[in-house]
Amino acid sequence: MKTKLSFLTITFLLISTLSFAQKSKKQKLFNGKDLTGWVVYGTEKWYVEDGILVCESGPDKQYGYLGTEKKFKNFELTLDFKQEANGNSGVFFHSSIAGTTITGWQAEVAPPGHNTGGIYESHGRGWIIKPEPEKDKALKMGEWNTMTVRVVDNVVTTILNGTEMIKLDDPKIGERDGILALQIHSGGGIKVRWKNIVVREL
């Protein structure tokens, strides 16, 4: 009996360990070649150029989104972005999209002075938290920036180039999962480059 119980215990531990390792493994969301694993919403431009993902305003100058096929709940997302022209964009999480109407939360990506790293709830409460003004200097306009968005249950943390921009505890965020998505803001004149888009489920 003891031998049987020991075998079952070891088997359970091995399965649990493998499951945890698989879940915590980093996944490249962008393969550097095409938009495999993503869905385009709207008529704005999303394309790959020299291994870089580019989003650019189209003739319609409307909102546009590039969303993951997969949903995520607890995760750590890291990516690099470079803003060209008007860099008003964002990284959405725990979101859903119908047409070009998105519901969920956004980690802001915007020009200097416009709260990059803050959290905005789309089709909800609006701005939830903005970074302290002095943290805006972490943004390097026109250069490559590294952003991390970490979500664990109710708690969201954003980090920009090594600076923690915000940490938010919001029970509403912990109630759901959803896709990840990149945004092109309406108004035209927007161009942002993205690379090294990696997620680790927690």
The CATH topology turns out to be Jelly Rolls
The CATH architecture classification is Sandwich
The CATH superfamily title: Exo-inulinase, domain 1
What is the class in the CATH system?
A: Mainly Beta
- State Rg: 19 Å
SS-based class: mainly beta
Secondary-structure element string: HEEEEEEEEEEEEEEE
Shape assignment = globular
Fraction of residues in helix: 10-25%
User: What is the β-strand count?
Assistant: 15
Number of domains: 1
The first-to-last residue Cα distance is 36 Å
Count, helices: 1
Kindly estimate the percentage of residues that lie in beta strands according to DSSP: over 45%
Averaged pLDDT, please?
90
The stretches of 5 or more residues where confidence is low (pLDDT under 50) are: 11-21
Biggest sheet overview = 8 strands, antiparallel
Give your account of this protein's structure.
This protein is mainly beta and 202 residues long. The protein has a single domain, classed as Jelly Rolls. It contains 1 helix and 15 strands; from the N terminus they run H-E-E-E-E-E-E-E-E-E-E-E-E-E-E-E. The protein has one helix at 2-24; strands spanning 26-28, 38-41, 45-49, 52-56, 64-72, 75-85, 89-98, 101-109, 119-122, 126-129, 144-152, 155-160, 163-169, 178-184, 190-201. The strands form 2 sheets. Strands 1, 3, 4, 6, 11, 12, 13 and 15 form an 8-stranded antiparallel beta sheet that branches. A 7-stranded antiparallel beta sheet has the order 2-5-14-7-8-9-10, with no helix packed on it.
